[in-house]
Amino acid sequence: MSQPLPASPGTASHEHVVGMGTVLDHVRTPREVLRPHIVEFRNVTKTYNVGKAEEFTAIRDVNFVVEDIADKGEFICVLGPSGCGKSTILRLIAGLEPQYPATGGDVLVLGKPVIGSGSDRGMVFQDYTSFDHRTVLENVTFGLECLHMPRKQRDELGREWIQKMGLNVENDAQKYPHELSGGMRQRVAIARTLALKPRIILMDEPFGALDPLTRLNMQDLLVKLWKEVQATVFFITHSIEEAVFLGDRVYLMSNSPGTITEELKIEPANRPAHEMQRQPEFLEAVYYIRDKITKLESNP
Amino acid sequence: MNSTFLNRLSHNWLTLRKPVSRLQAIGLGVACVLVCLAGWWFLTRGAYESRIVGPLTLPSPAETFGKFPELWNDFALTRNVLVTLRRVSIGFALALIVGVPIGVTAGCFPRVHAFLSPLIMLGRNVPLAAVLPLMIFIFGAGEKNKVMFIFVASVAFVISDAARAIMDVSARYIDTAYTLGASRWQTITKVLVPLAAPTIFSACRQMFGLAFGYIMLAESIKIADDVGGLGYQIQIFQRRGFREHIYLIILVIPMVALVIDQVLAWVQRQLFPHVYGGDGVLRSLVRVTLIPWENMKSRAFYRTPTSLPSVATAEGPK
Ligand SMILES: Nc1ncnc2c1ncn2[C@@H]1O[C@H](COP(=O)(O)OP(=O)(O)OP(=O)(O)O)[C@@H](O)[C@H]1O
Ligand SMILES: [Mg+2]
Questions:
Q1: How many interface pairs between A and B have CB atoms less than 8 angstroms apart?
Q2: Is the pLDDT of residue B95 over 70?
Q3: What is the count of structural domains for chain A?
Q4: Which residue in chain A has the smallest CA separation from B195?
Q5: Can you give the residue range of the structural domain that contains A152?
Q6: Residue A123 near residue A90, CB atoms below 8 Å
Q7: Among all residues of chain B, which has the CA nearest to that of A178?
Q8: Which residues are found with C-beta within 5 Å of the ion, ligand 2?
């Protein structure tokens, strides 16, 4: 907080455009954003196994701030080499152990320190985490059930979300997760998170295990639904295309201990994924990021 | 020629882990029984003196089964089976009522587990032959000692199996439940216990079979007069030298065990359709009986939230 700011807000000279993206030469600090902050990291450090032989600092002094854009929310994608601490950051926001609590620094959501987990920060995991003993409908309405929403009301809402996620209410609602394909399971996982209308949605490589075509379809679906639920999304991925397509903003992370090295602003996607991802401006942004990540990976 | 035929035979009949049809499975089981009976008949055929195995060791099948009416009528087979079953069931049910909640708690909270682990260790390794006389000191010679013997013999296993089943549920389900707003209690009742339940059930199903063996031990100690039960009967027959009856009871026990196991298997299938397929009659039944309780909680705790899901906002402007 005490060091001088490298640039005053909105100075264009330190930014440069790469295709669809605009590279900021630094990660924005709280002073540069005008709106209230939905998520803010202040010098956050996470060390695993403190005091033991296998002590390991996964992230060090991570700083970033995400604005609370009313009635819209921002879509933040996080890219970085494997093991740089992306999941650590996400789980710190979610308030999940053992990442939570941070070893140092402050994790703030809407200005308040995160204390444990809550349905205001929904999370979708890469592993299939459908509750095997519940039908699709019971999975989707799990969170509502925990709120004690009356059965009729929550089933109605659940069916609606099943439909919105592109599943068939008639056929699929009463199925068990083991009867579903990977793509369908992730749809269920997303539906059950969105049904709670969280302010923040945390997605840790949710499409990582899907085949390329399903993945593109899921991207389109996600863009559509995200506009509807108006949440701030944190989306971790290893696919640069996915990040540039989905993201309003992309954070690049470097390795050991992980920290955010670069922030890019990306133009919003305005057409379906398979079309969008062939545009030259799109590819320019992708190649720029790919070069950066290659560099990050080669000299950590 | 011949070798291709053998090859084909071994391919069709001995494919690794290839499932058999139900009919074939039953057929093969029956075949095994027939082979055993044939062996039995062969060893004990002919006049007493000329038999391969003497009649004092092993009576012939005809002699043995000929005693069945006597066993059934004069020695009240059904009543004794029921007496034995009642003892095992009560003792084992007690073990479940006590053991499952404790095991679940221990599985959820490692501190509780650490605290209980000496007791579990003791219970699992206790020499049952030594426990039996103790049970008689404590509970007398009546029904109580037999029931408690089954309880003591199985409760530690129930606890540790339930704890293990809970601990084996992947942590990602807990994370998921938490990020969907479940409380700790809700995570236990709606996620951990139901996910562990099939494992706990099948462990207990196996243990029931073992308990059925233990009860014979408890029943074979004769202190009071006619305490009944299969173990007690074996004791009597032994004293009177009724070999045929003993062999019959030895054959009856697995049949009773089979019937019970099939009933438990049915319950298991109907309770956990997500594991065994089928329509889950019992699961639906459990759900339906819980509905009033759930509705009560909804009325007590649910407040229509202002920022939270309502059908209208979820659909956007219409
Ligand atoms: N529970 C833990 N205990 C010890 N070390 C951990 C733990 N979780 C993560 N780490 C370490 O912290 C580092 C960052 O982990 P993290 O899972 O955040 O990486 P990531 O960027 O999500 O990687 P990936 O892209 O492979 O998912 C890794 O080196 C990992 O080994
Ligand atoms: Mg990760």
A1: 110
A2: yes
A3: 2
A4: A133
A5: 130-197
A6: yes
A7: B274
A8: A 87
Which is nearest to B211 in space by CA: B252, B157, B161, B143? B157
Same domain, B175 and B28: no
Token pair in block for residue A287: 């190649």
Note whether B118 and B239 are same-domain residues: yes
Q: Do B195 and A132 touch (CB under 8 A)?
A: yes
Q: Give Cα B201 to chain centroid, integer Å.
A: 8
Q: Is the pLDDT of residue B172 over 90?
A: yes
Question: Which tokens go with A166?
Answer: 């592109």
Tens of pLDDT along chain A (300 residues)? Answer: 444 444 444 444 477 887 788 888 778 888 788 788 899 999 999 999 988 889 999 999 999 999 888 888 899 999 998 889 999 999 999 999 899 899 999 999 998 999 999 999 999 998 889 999 999 999 999 999 999 999 999 999 999 999 999 898 889 999 999 999 888 999 999 999 999 999 999 999 999 888 988 999 999 999 889 888 889 999 999 999 999 999 999 999 988 788 888 889 888 877 888 888 888 888 888 888 888 888 877 765
- Partner-chain contact B176 A129, CB within 8 Å: yes
Q: Please return the burial class of A54, using the count of CB atoms within 10 Å of its CB with bins 0-12, 13-18 and 19+.
A: exposed
**Is the C-beta atom of A85 inside 6 A of ligand 1?**
yes
Distance from CA of B306 to the nearest CA of A (A): 11
Tell me how many domains chain B contains. Answer: 2
**Long-range Cβ pairs for the range B67-72 (8 Å, 24+):** B67/B242, B67/B244, B67/B245, B67/B248, B68/B248, B70/B245, B71/B245, B71/B248, B71/B249
On whether both A160 and A190 belong to a single domain, the answer is: yes
> Does pTM top 0.80 for this prediction?
yes
A206 SS3 class: coil
Boundary-marking domain end, from B33, B65, B97 = B65
Contact check, Cβ <8 Å, B305/A147: yes
Residue B315 lies in a domain: no
